[in-house]
Design a protein that fits this description.
This protein has helices at about 15-25, 40-50, 65-75, 90-95, 110-125, 185-190, 235-240, and strands at about 5-10, 30-35, 55-60, 80-85, 100-105, 145-150, 150-155, 160-165, 170-175, 180, 195-200, 205, 215, 220, 225. It has about 240 residues and is of the alpha/beta class. The strands form four sheets. It has a five-stranded parallel beta sheet with strand order 2-1-3-4-5. A five-stranded antiparallel beta sheet has the order 10-9-8-12-11. Helix 2 packs parallel to helix 3 (about 65-75). It folds into two domains: about 5-135, Rossmann fold, CATH 3.40.50.2300; about 145-240, OB fold (Dihydrolipoamide Acetyltransferase, E2P) (Beta Barrel), CATH 2.40.50.1020.
Length: about 240
């Protein structure tokens, strides 16, 4: 019995590159395209809204949220990933992320088919679990790479007390230090995969697990006091009760 085609999504900020990959997918009977998206944030939104696929054809160098950062933020279980990039120097990162293959542009059909064959072989090697015994997806790892200045540094978000808006930037406040992140509070909040980080004010996102006390719509996190905005109070109460 022939297996169903793999559903796939193309992610690339360059329209010509997307069209090229769409053509390759169209030439490959084992694949069916379900979405072709221009960036990492759009793709993260797609998955967070319940979208799914078997395979992600993922560009690496994209503005705001690059392919490597996106791969670390995908909900689990994540789809198989094939990185597609202009550069050769992402091989180590690809290995660390356990992607199935790594294609360098321009991608030829023969090389593309070889990568798809690897995905199909990996899929055939893993027996499907019945729904009753399928494990629940684990919580995201507490560590994320965040771009601070010209560097990407690893932040343990268990140590983050709150995040504060600072003009077009954000400040991550941990138990011991502060990090200025070159993203707005809204953009950073959309990237966080942690349900216990909740916006409580137009200027603050807090780690619910680090709240020590709540009094008169003020939150105590260590030595810091954070206000709960009036329009956020009802939503905050619901999140607090769910802990």
């Amino acid at each position: 019995m022939q297996s169903a085609p793999l559903t796939c999504i193309i992610v690339d900020d360059n329209e010509i590159n997307r069209l090229t990959l769409e053509h390759l997918v169209d030439l490959t009977p084992e694949l069916v395209l379900v979405a072709s998206l221009p960036g990492g944030l759009e793709t993260l939104t797609y998955f967070r809204q319940g979208g799914r696929c078997d395979l992600l054809l993922l560009d690496v160098e994209m503005p705001t949220l690059n392919g490597l950062e996106l791969a670390r933020l995908l909900p689990r279980p994540a789809p198989a990933i094939i990185l597609v990039t202009t550069y050769h120097d992402f091989a180590v990162a690809a290995f660390e992320l356990q992607v199935v293959d790594y294609l360098v542009k321009p991608v030829e059909l023969v090389r593309f088919n070889q990568a798809i064959a690897k995905v199909l072989a990996a899929r055939a090697a893993v027996p499907a679990l019945p729904p009753a015994t399928a494990p629940a997806p684990p919580e995201p790892a507490p560590e994320l790479f965040v771009k601070v200045g010209t560097r990407s540094i690893k932040i343990n978000f268990d140590d983050v007390l709150y995040i504060e808006a600072l003009s077009t930037y954000s400040v991550l406040v941990t138990t011991t230090q502060k990090h200025i992140v070159y993203l707005t509070l809204k953009a950073l909040g959309e990237r966080l995969p942690f349900a216990h980080f909740v916006r409580v004010h137009r200027s603050y996102i807090v780690n619910l697990r680090r709240i020590e006390a709540v009094e008169d719509h003020m939150l105590k996190l260590g030595s810091h006091l954070i206000p709960v905005g009036k329009s956020y109070q009802e939503e905050f109460s619901r999140h607090l009760k769910s802990l």
